[in-house]
Design goal:
single chain, Methylamine Dehydrogenase, Chain H, four-stranded antiparallel β-sheet
Length: 332
């Protein structure tokens, strides 16, 4: 199974690494520096290409790129400026005709068409406004954008203003229009979302290491619970990073505590089951494999770990500055 790892240059990263997992062995097949600081990667199933968000190697401004993945390496196919700095997350429309990027610095959202299998110039840039009470909330910080299942609604986490903004997406043009705003508790910093179903949403709050369980009731989102991702009584420095759902379990990575937390998920509850070491330092991102194992990208220890729930670390691959990880789909 092939996968890709994005890296930070300041931590020794060398762009994007194309990697392979064969049984229990991890290896790097090749790298590319077509984009600097690739902080988010996703795979386009429609076009069979890798999409990367990061910095323009020439100007340092925000950039989105599409890359062909071949046996002889990764090749840049197209690239476009996002118009906002540090695009740290992106999502595709359901027909993969548009790419939406969440630009962290300054807080903005970009809409870029995909035409003839290549990125085209952006058709919209939405600038956010406001700030929060936490020292890290001096301005808007768009941290994630994703689509609510079975809808054309796009949800944006603004870590800087403690808001989740809901946009209607227009299928023909890709343009977004604001529909509603979820105002989350002050100082929590919403980072990422997952939807276990159309009417349930889990929001990960980075600054206070909390997971929020939201239900859509009577036309509005209601927070039913806030649960900690850290052990009771632990007061060290840590920030929540990534959240994934796998069947009836929810997993969260904790940077600083350097762990994964697992929650059992029922129809109306979340219950912490365990918290275990992730096998490295600063687990910023992870993916869950079809066989139940995990691939975890550790930024500060500079590696990707093959990890199991029962056995912990199984294998290790040195990749300095590893910050995001993406599987190639469909599986070979």
């Amino acid at each position: 199974m092939d996968f890709f790892v994005g890296t930070y240059a300041r931590d020794g990263g060398q762009g994007i690494s194309h990697c392979r997992l064969e049984r229990d062995a991890l290896s790097v097949l090749g790298t590319t520096q077509a984009i600097d600081n690739p902080i988010w990667l996703l795979w386009s199933e429609r076009f069979g290409t890798l999409i990367a968000c990061g910095d323009d190697p020439d100007t340092g401004s925000g950039l989105a790129a599409m890359l062909d993945v071949r046996e002889d390496g990764m090749r840049l196919k197209s690239r476009q400026a996002t118009g906002g700095d540090v695009p740290c997350h992106a999502a595709l429309s359901d027909d993969e005709a548009f790419l939406y990027t969440a630009n962290y610095i300054g807080g903005s959202v970009s809409v870029l068409p995909i035409r003839d299998g290549a990125l085209d110039k952006r058709v919209q840039l939405i600038q956010l406004v406001g700030k929060g009470i936490h020292p890290r909330q001096d301005s808007p910080h768009a941290h994630m954008i994703c689509r609510r299942p079975q809808t054309q609604e796009y949800y944006l986490c603004d870590l800087g203003t403690d808001r989740i903004l809901i946009y209607d997406g227009k299928r023909e043009t890709g343009r977004l229009s604001l529909r509603d705003i979820i105002r989350t508790p002050s100082g929590l910093g919403p980072r990422h979302l997952v939807f276990p179903g159309r009417d349930r949403m889990l929001a990960l709050f980075e600054l206070e290491n909390l997971l929020g369980d939201y239900a859509f009731e009577n036309g509005a989102w209601v927070c039913r619970a806030l649960v900690s991702t850290l052990p009771e009584g632990w007061h060290g420095e840590s920030t929540a990073a990534a959240v994934r759902v796998d069947s009836d379990r929810v997993y969260v990575s904790n940077r600083g505590h350097d762990s994964l937390a697992c929650f059992a998920m029922g129809s109306s509850f979340l219950a912490l089951e365990w918290i275990r070491p992730s096998g490295g330092a600063f687990p910023r991102d992870f993916v869950i494999l079809p066989d139940g194992r995990f691939l975890i990208a550790h930024q500060k220890s500079g590696d990707v770990t093959l990890w199991t729930i029962r056995g912990g670390k199984q294998a290790h691959l040195a990749i300095p500055g590893a910050v995001c990880i993406c599987r190639q789909k469909p599986y070979p």
